[in-house]
Specification:
single chain, 231 residues, alpha/beta, 51% helix, globular, Rossmann fold
């Protein structure tokens, strides 16, 4: 019997999970974990084999992405406002990109999903039950891979790429430390713990991404290939 999609909660009005015939594959992980590299490889691999794909990710909504970017630049957003901004961004992409693509039988590759949003909010003290209800509109993915990288390694990767550390990815809004380097380590450690908590509920795969790019690529291709062969 073919596996059908489900929603985590109440779903979207008038949208039947049974109509979503495509596959939803999520790649999670912090900046510097190799998400973009792995997703680019997966898109090429899947489309070369004749499987059409669609990509989504954080802050890609045509509705609020620019406004969210501008608000974050000011570094003054409250935790609730930030949470609802991202939830709106997700909901818009869900309605206009994710669900139509799944209905059309496409593979949707998500460069992060509700788990990053929930982990960020949990680290900032938001109620987990409230967050689960907020994201009850989300369809359950067919596979989720969290690329786990130690905070010390993430620091080096981000500095080598950008020569600086991002304000929000360093958790500077939380007052963990005046030093951005120290704050980054503490914040990313807290994010890892939040993901471990979420993994117990949502059961996604934790992939050791401290390894070489090729090693991670081989593991993802093997697991996704097995998923796509399921009837």
């Amino acid at each position: 019997m073919k596996k059908t999609h489900q929603f985590y909660g109440h779903g979207i009005p008038r949208v039947k999970a049974a109509d979503l015939g495509g596959k939803l594959i999520v790649i999670e992980g912090a900046d510097g974990s190799g998400r973009s590299t792995q997703i680019a490889d997966l898109v090429n691999w899947l489309e070369t084999s004749g499987r059409p794909t669609v990509q989504v990710g954080l802050k890609r909504s045509t509705l609020v992405s620019e406004e969210l970017e501008q608000a974050q630049d000011g570094n003054v957003l409250s935790r609730t406002t930030l949470s609802l901004f991202y939830a709106t961004d997700f909901a818009d992409q869900l309605e206009n990109i994710i669900l139509p693509a799944l209905k059309a039988g496409f593979i949707v590759l998500a460069d992060r999903y509700i788990y990053t949003l929930m982990a960020r909010d949990m680290v900032r003290g938001m109620d987990e039950a409230w967050l689960k209800n907020l994201y009850g509109i989300a369809p359950v993915p067919d596979a989720v891979f969290y690329l786990s990288v130690e905070p010390e390694e993430l620091v080096q990767r981000n500095l080598s790429k950008n020569a600086t550390l991002d304000y929000w990815e360093s958790g500077m809004d939380l007052g963990l430390s005046r030093d951005v380097f120290d704050s980054f380590l503490k914040y990313q450690g807290a994010m890892q713990n939040a993901f471990k908590t979420l993994q117990k509920t949502y059961g996604f795969d934790i992939v050791d991404a401290n390894r070489s790019v090729n090693s991670v690529t081989k593991e993802l291709r093997k697991k996704i290939g097995a998923l796509l062969e399921e009837k």
